[in-house]
Design goal:
By secondary structure, the protein is mainly alpha-helical. Helices cover about 55% and strands about 0% of the residues. It is built from five helices and no strands.
Length: about 70
């Protein structure tokens, strides 16, 4: 689940359908990506970062983030 992305989207009152349109994917594809069922492509992540005027790494967690141990 891309929790930061979902929170940003809701904060800016942007629907999932609107986000899908902004990055050029259909609604079902966007929903699957935001929920973590599939991965965002790099160009989609950069487009979303531009929309919210934030660095990519402030919005998206790495795929294997939960597998990393903090030392």
């Amino acid at each position: 689940m891309q929790e930061k992305l979902a929170a940003l989207r809701r904060y800016h009152n942007i629907s999932q359908k609107e986000m899908a349109s902004l990055i050029g994917v259909d609604l079902r594809t966007y929903v699957n990506k935001e929920s973590g069922q599939s991965q965002f492509k790099a160009n989609e992540m950069f487009a979303i970062a531009k929309i919210f005027q934030k660095p990519v790494d402030e919005i998206f967690l790495p795929t294997n983030f939960t597998k990393h141990e903090v030392s």
